[in-house]
């Protein structure tokens, strides 16, 4: 707290002077903005520093004029013009063809940040203070009075709030008209527009599809979804569109990319079923009509990965598992899991390999790696969700490098990355948030397998050895990914947000398994006290992080909706951990209980926001929600007052 008080009493100008060089030393010239934000050494070269050039980052120096009150009239005028254009477009009668919408510049929003932008606009309720704070612990400071850029999500606390400090998230001050539960994308088809449920490729249907602006939907992917799924190169996609645009494999990819664009567009959302059907039909056409080795196609593989992502988000898990099987076997036939190993092929034996053409293009090689790791992440999610075994195999045996930092452009320069099985904490290479997602998923699978040891008496003998080994691995993973686990990264990078939430969810799951086993075997509760403390601490961090990223505008593109299914699991795990505090009587409540109840109310609202009331994750929390409702009624809390 003393450090917090000293930091809070320091002016932003003083902190800027101390940290301007990015290395903590005084210098005649400031470091670039990215190096200052990440607190790494910068050579201060112009126009781009050496580090940003190597990592293909948008380098820049802080010499831009900031907005002042004098700029408000011009900004208001621009907003009024855009609003008038939008109203005019909405008032037009809907016909069979929709005119191409006018280009509207996207306003910056804290929940959907373009990573290529250097200046991140501050929202009206977040002044740029220089206060540093650990949001992982309960605090009474309102979010509107703290700078989220300096808040530390990474600090591991081994205790949860006692009676001396209660969790005050200012939840009752949140404006909640936005808390309308989302509905399944397939339920948004307007009544006056309908399409057959199964549409086979035909000339008539091609003309119907061509009436819609595919390029706008493709642009939606590269402007927004790319930063969630960064494994498709825009330059390669555009080049193939002009040279190979009529091949079934590319058409499958084209419609799959358009499908991703539909998910963030209210105007085109009713076409999701159409693009989904077209993408699947062209993928199947590739398998039916292509020559035996013609299915070795990166476009087809990427189309399947996009389709899997849509099926997971649309709660079609059975179909997603079947599509996963096709994609997994295709990746094995193409040898993607061993693509960076010099494996000598035995031409004399029966060879089913459909190997991709050899290439020295670093961007294309990286695109293949990221596509494979995207499949690995989705398969791991479905496995944790359903309990099905992974067909790709153990990740530490893959002969493919981890994804490299940087955008997939012609200027991409890959960093030397290790195999996942050879990754060490010291030295640890600079990891991108996408690589962090791979590490998070590998850890989740390890903890999931560890939890199964507690299910059978025959495997419990090795449980505690595995437990303490995983405690060490969890700490190593947090240390490796510390640069992506701070509040600034979690707000600006959607992948970092998902990584942090799921790491905390995995940590809760891991410790709750230990607590449950202690209770089943009748051991003293003190044997599980450490796991209880760590589980509760992680649950509070999930609640605090969810509040940090609470959407305030652009409901169709906010970070919670776009990552909904992948955020629900850590939210539910946090609710299960916090619900332990509800077992006592409301009359005997203390500060710790108040903190847990406040966080549970926040997480309940978050779950309502990202999933329908009759969804799977709601069914997992029926008892918790009932207990919370009973607690509110007993204590006289009225949720309608929020």
Automatic annotation (TrEMBL):
One of its GO terms (biological process) is DNA-templated transcription. The keyword Transcription regulation applies. Residues 1-29 are annotated as: Disordered. Residues 8-29 have a biased composition (Polar residues). GO terms for cellular component: nucleus. It comes from the Eukaryota. Keywords: Metal-binding, Nucleus, Transcription, Transcription regulation. The lineage of its organism: Eukaryota, Fungi, Dikarya, Ascomycota, Pezizomycotina. Its main location: nucleus. Signal peptide: none annotated. This is Zn(2)-C6 fungal-type domain-containing protein. InterPro entries: TF_fung, XnlR_reg_dom, Zn2-C6_fun-type_DNA-bd_sf, Zn2Cys6_DnaBD. Residues 31-61 form the Zn(2)-C6 fungal-type domain. GO terms for molecular function: DNA binding; DNA-binding transcription factor activity, RNA polymerase II-specific; zinc ion binding. It is found in: Nucleus. It comes from Daldinia eschscholtzii. Pfam families: Fungal_trans, Zn_clus.
